[in-house]
């Protein structure tokens, strides 16, 4: 809805110094002309927006502006605050406190910062994660290439990437960017990305195909494996696929037939159970698990 988008644009501008029309159009998945009409509508509503042209230009809210809390419901205010605190948990910013200042004006009842929703996006390597996020956000804003060393399942490589956005998905942080070596858009997990530095070279943002923005849409899970799990592993099955994703066999074990991205992903999954899982089908995966188990046993003799 247009009203939701207007509030979204206003909230986004409150937590950033400024944003370009292309940036807002991509963020809200509308045309630049639509964003321009939205900006005009906000100005007519009395929001003091300032537009500047040229390098480093864009749309910004005039310093000192405070958001009229009546535009948002208490639930929406708490949701925005929880989201900002989530971002603060992995960055060196204080967006939540700045937001509280912007929605707290003289003569109004104080807005309680405490809510029933807590979002903490940090991890056990918070310090290095925060540094990566801050550096990448600057590089994205300044349209500057970055370099880093990346670790894959089958090796490692030095990368040179055009950064486009930071993505929190599948319970982890990723960089979405254009790999200059592969000449394609890629997702890079921040936990595998090290020795991150600016490349000292700018780039002109290229159009991002819509399908590339649908993260995970090309990930397949058509490698089907049937297995029996010990009852003690029930919590893991529920966590992974839900309580209706398996049945109880006659011997009390849990029977499930799931799809995986491929044999390697399936193998890692079953090995993580030790002797708590038995592959039934396909025979090739059952043999792979047996071979790996024998290798592990031989190494520990």
Automatic annotation (TrEMBL):
Keywords: DNA-binding, Transcription, Transcription regulation. Residues 2-60 form the HTH deoR-type domain. GO terms for molecular function: DNA binding; DNA-binding transcription factor activity. PROSITE patterns: HTH_DEOR_2, WYL. InterPro entries: CBASS_pafABC_assoc_protein, DeoR_HTH, HTH_11, PafC-like, WCX_dom, WH-like_DNA-bd_sf, WH_DNA-bd_sf, WYL_dom. It comes from Bittarella massiliensis. It comes from the Bacteria. Pfam families: HTH_11 (PF08279), WCX (PF25583), WYL (PF13280). The keyword ATP-binding does not apply. The keyword DNA damage does not apply. PANTHER family: PROTEIN PAFC, PTHR34580. This is Predicted DNA-binding transcriptional regulator YafY, contains an HTH and WYL domains. The lineage of its organism: Bacteria, Bacillati, Bacillota, Clostridia, Eubacteriales.
């Amino acid at each position: 809805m247009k009203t939701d988008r207007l509030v979204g644009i206003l909230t986004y501008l409150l937590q950033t110094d400024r944003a370009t029309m292309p940036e807002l159009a991509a963020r809200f998945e509308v045309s630049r002309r639509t964003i321009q009409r939205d900006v005009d509508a906000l100005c007519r509503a009395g929001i003091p927006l300032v537009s500047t042209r040229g390098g480093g230009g864009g749309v910004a809210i005039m310093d000192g502006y405070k958001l009229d809390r009546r535009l948002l419901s208490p639930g929406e205010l708490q949701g925005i605050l929880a989201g900002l605190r989530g971002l603060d948990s992995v960055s060196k910013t204080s967006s939540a406190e700045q937001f509280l200042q912007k929605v707290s004006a003289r003569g109004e009842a104080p807005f309680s910062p405490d809510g029933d929703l807590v979002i903490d996006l940090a991890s056990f390597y918070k310090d290095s994660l925060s540094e990566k996020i801050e550096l990448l956000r600057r590089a994205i804003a300044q349209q500057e290439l970055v370099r880093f060393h990346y670790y894959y399942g089958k090796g490692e490589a030095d990368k040179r990437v055009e950064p486009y956005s930071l993505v929190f998905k599948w319970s982890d942080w990723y960089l979405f960017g254009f790999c200059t070596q592969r000449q394609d858009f890629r997702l890079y997990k921040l936990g595998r990305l090290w020795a991150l530095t600016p490349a000292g070279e700018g780039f002109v943002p290229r159009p991002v195909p819509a399908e590339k923005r649908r993260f995970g849409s090309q990930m397949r899970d058509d490698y089907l494996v049937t297995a029996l799990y010990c009852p003690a592993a029930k919590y893991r099955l529920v966590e992974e696929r839900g309580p209706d994703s398996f049945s109880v066999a006659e011997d009390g074990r849990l029977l499930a037939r799931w799809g995986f991205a491929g044999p390697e992903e399936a193998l890692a999954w079953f090995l993580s159970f030790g002797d708590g899982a038995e592959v039934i089908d396909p025979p090739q995966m059952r043999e792979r698990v047996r071979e790996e188990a024998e290798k592990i046993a031989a190494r520990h003799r």
